[in-house]
Amino acid sequence: MSTETILILGGSFAGMSAAHYALMHIIPQLPKKDGITYNVTVVNPSKDFYWRIAGPRVIASKELMPYNKLFYPIEPAFAYAKDKFTFVQGKATHVDSAGQTVSVESVSGEQKNIPYAALVIATGFSTPTPLFTQTTDRAALEATYDAFHTQLKHAKTVVIGGAGPVGVEAAGEISEFLNGKPGFMASAPKNPKAKVTVISAEKKMLPVLRESISKQAEKFLKRVGADVVYNTKVVSATKASEAEDAKTTVQLSDGKTIEADIYIDATGTRPNTNFLPKEWLDNRNRVSCNAKTLRVEAAGPRVYVVGDCGSYTRGGVMDQYDAIPVAMTNLRTDLVAHLSGQTPGPDRHYEANLKEQQLVPIGSSKGVGAANGMALPSVMVWGIKGRDYLIGMLVEGHMNGKTYEKEGKWKPQPVVAAGQLGTSRG
């Protein structure tokens, strides 16, 4: 008896989605052969899925966002297919594309090699601050939050480097928590407890959104006691000592410095790809792939990438609803051809949705954003995302796989001969 494994590296949004899709729409359609079984294996450093979307609220207070709304056990989500699903708590350390195996280090330090028939890279990203990244397990991240909450209670100055959605959301949540909700028609708190400053490297915040929406975000931030500094970068942030209450000196590109009780680095993300061969990566260390089929062509046959670590995407959870069906349909096409010896069928193609689209809550009652190129009123941003950071709307469907119960219609693309467009099939 042998087992053909669809191996998925990563158990966050993209990895979970890929696993459900594989179990629902790939395994049932693979050739039935005597002595061969099929399996979907997910490798992830934590046994719990982390709802990172809500990170900006939980860093302000676990009363506002309880920990039990952030973490969800991965294995029970696949109980419907437990005989075809395997979970490995650990992290990938090396990929042997020639031998089609991945080396994995378990949480106990044990090394094991996992063979694959098809490989999906969905390792996501890490953030400069540990506040928005789950690198090990739930207990470690909860401890990080607990320590931060202790500091925050006494903070008088908070500096946030970076004015993307996470930086802006964090500024709104922290400012409201420390300074209180704004009064009716008030432009700023009368007696703010803390001064919160957002450092934006550009002339506006929220790069994906238009300037008028960014300006509205600034107004909402000012109402809870947060200021924004534009066209300025954080050059360095140096903590005076290892003590939890030690101050941090933030050096800015304009020559000024700010002494902060708390500094939060929200300057971007770093793809979790350091275990992969350099020739698989682009100049931003993302996994380079065919932008239409999402195959990682440098990696040999039946290797795909989904999620924020891929070169094809500008990022975001919503983009994965377009990408997952593409990558996994093409995986199925290639795997069926490999197992049956037949010619691969037509490709499914990914089309990026580049319309202005982003929702940014600011505190517990305001927000800015756009959907499909249309600016949304604050109350709508609050209603969709600001109430609970999409937990009520998306968690259940994401965890149990119902989001991908139906494949959806798609128009087959003609098969391209290997080498014609650098396409690797097999």
Automatic annotation (TrEMBL):
Protein name, entry field: FAD/NAD(P)-binding domain-containing protein
One Pfam family cited in the UniProt record for this chain: Pyr_redox_2
InterPro entries documented for this protein: FAD/NAD-bd_sf (IPR036188), FAD/NAD-binding_dom (IPR023753)
A GO molecular function held by the record: electron-transferring-flavoprotein dehydrogenase activity
Claim: 4Fe-4S is one of the keywords in the record: no
Cellular-component GO terms for this entry: cytoplasm
Keywords carried by this UniProt record: FAD, Flavoprotein, Membrane, Oxidoreductase, Transmembrane, Transmembrane helix
Origin superkingdom: Eukaryota
Residues in FAD/NAD(P)-binding domain copies: 6-320
Family: Belongs to the FAD-dependent oxidoreductase family.
Membrane-spanning parts: 6-23
The keyword Oxidoreductase belongs to this UniProt entry's keyword annotation: yes
